[in-house]
Amino acid sequence: MAKDRREFLKNSGVLGLSGLIGPFSVFSEDHDFLNFQQNSYLIKNTEILSMDDSVGDFLGMVLVENGKISEVSKNIEIPQGIEIIDAEGGILIPGLIDCHWHLWTSLLRSMSGNSLQEGYFKMTARYSELYSPEDMKLAAKYAIAEAIHSGITCISDYNHNARSWKYVKASFDAMAEMGLRGHVSYGTYRNMKESDSTDFRGIKTLKELIESDSKYNDIKLGLGSRYANYQDIMLDWKRARDLGLRITIHASSNESQKGQIASLYNKNLLAEDVNIIHGNAITPREIEFVEKTAASITMTPYSEMRIGYGLPKINQLNESQINCCVGIDTTALTGNAHLLDTLKLLQNLANANAKNEFYINPKKLLKMATIQGAKNLGIDNETGSITPGKTADLVLLKKDDLNFSTGNKAYHLVIEAALPSNINMVMAKGKVLKYKGKLTGINSDELIKKAKERFSEMNQEIG
Ligand SMILES: [Zn+2]
User: How far, in Å, is the centroid of ligand 1 from the Cα of 262?
Assistant: First the structure.
């Protein structure tokens, strides 16, 4: 082994002509001296779950250069002076992609109470009126910090406190400042009148603004559609598509909304650019409609179950050709943003329904939160797998915690055992956003303090 390593170092150029390791390499081996300003790294000694069949899964190395994955291999010649991250046998997965989240509700964590008045819809409607655009940004940052902690590097935010374009811009600013990729759906707001038309003037203003500033390059604008049967749906979706916007819609969320997906299909609205949220009441015929049109479905099982929508149709969807994805939806209902736990819930529900220990493969589940999420958002050529040429959106889980150390079935470990605290490193677009379990780019204490202060003020205003 020692000889192999010496050979490797010699071949890799780390051992120079003199046989000495250069001082930069010595520093970069020391975790406390990792340079977070970089966007070029070599990750070594890691079990790679690439989520790309042409790359495969193996113990090896990943080279990141200028924010992009340039090589994935068992052995890589180490470029001189590059920062090295030693995974020490840990597991590397693509950055997780959340396909449905209302970021603004993060200040209202677990605030859905025990009566109709305190229930999710009435409670969020009451608080939503107190938000300013600055509050929207604070809430989004507070949510994104937790997302990064949980291994999420791309979020599809459905902004449904869109009282003006400034409220939606807050999501863009939060994502841009925190270094994430994203998609922001311009939605409605809680007490918007049925007769009010969709704010295309605001959508166009925001679209021009984000397109004129490169800091928003990796954040896309979409339409957060109203429910399936509103009067102007066909006109609005056409206008959105003419602007190049993808469309997100809550549909067939529970039994009382049964038939909504069929209604969208019958109006010829479904296509590859549509992200259907929930779908708990989807019928076998509607599954065929969604397959035929290549729309995606995003399940948010924790919020769906918590609010009483029923169980996700994981078995039927798993057996279909539909591009299935997952989301947090709202921490007002889910309590936290542990997206891997969402996959575990789906795994256990699917196996329980099938009464079969081997029914669903954990690799299939991890695809829902990685490559399939990227496909849903139309960015699968940029992210969603550990593939040379794609952006370096990566998550490293080190195997040195009480709950995460033994075992060698990597997919099962990631789905079943992993907690956000086991996530050692999160990289988005080649920037290290979490390292050694701590967020690198933001002052978490300050953010928590601001979130607590604003939440407490809102409570006083509500009385
Ligand atoms: Zn939702």
Answer: 20
Q: What is the Å distance from ligand 1's center to 432 Cα? A: 29
CB 55 within 8 A of CB 62: no
Structural domains in the chain, sorted by start: 2-93+386-439 (2.30.40.10), 96-376 (3.20.20.140)
Residue 33 has φ and ψ, to the nearest 5°, of -110, 15
Ligand 1 center from residue 4 Cα (angstroms):
53
Ligand 1 centroid distance, CA of 71 (Å): 37
Among residues 79, 42, 77, 73, which one has the least CA distance to residue 59?
Answer: 73
Distance 252 CA to ligand 1 centre (A): 12
Question: Beta-carbon neighbour count of residue 214 at 10 Å?
Answer: 9
53 CA → ligand 1 middle, Å: 32
The pLDDT profile of the chain, 463 residues, written as one tens digit per residue, is 344 444 444 444 333 333 333 333 333 344 456 888 889 999 999 999 999 999 999 999 999 999 999 999 999 999 999 999 999 999 999 999 999 999 999 999 999 999 999 999 999 999 999 999 999 999 999 999 999 999 999 999 999 999 999 999 999 999 999 999 999 999 999 989 989 999 999 999 999 999 999 999 999 999 999 999 999 999 999 999 999 999 999 999 999 999 999 999 999 999 999 999 999 999 999 999 999 999 999 999 999 999 999 999 999 999 999 999 999 999 999 999 999 999 999 999 999 999 999 999 999 999 999 999 999 999 999 999 999 999 999 999 999 999 999 999 999 999 999 999 999 999 999 999 999 999 998 899 999 999 999 999 999 999 8
CA of 329 to the centre of ligand 1 (A): 5
Query: Can you say how many angstroms the Cα of residue 432 is from the centroid of all Cα atoms in its chain?
Result: 16
Q: What's the 48 CA to ligand 1 centre distance in angstroms? A: 32
The closest of 185, 274, 191 to 228, measured between CA atoms, is 274
Rounded to the nearest angstrom, the distance between the alpha carbon of 264 and the centre of ligand 1 is 18
Query: Burial level of 456, CB count in 10 A (0-12/13-18/19+)?
Result: exposed
Distance 374 CA to ligand 1 centre (A): 18
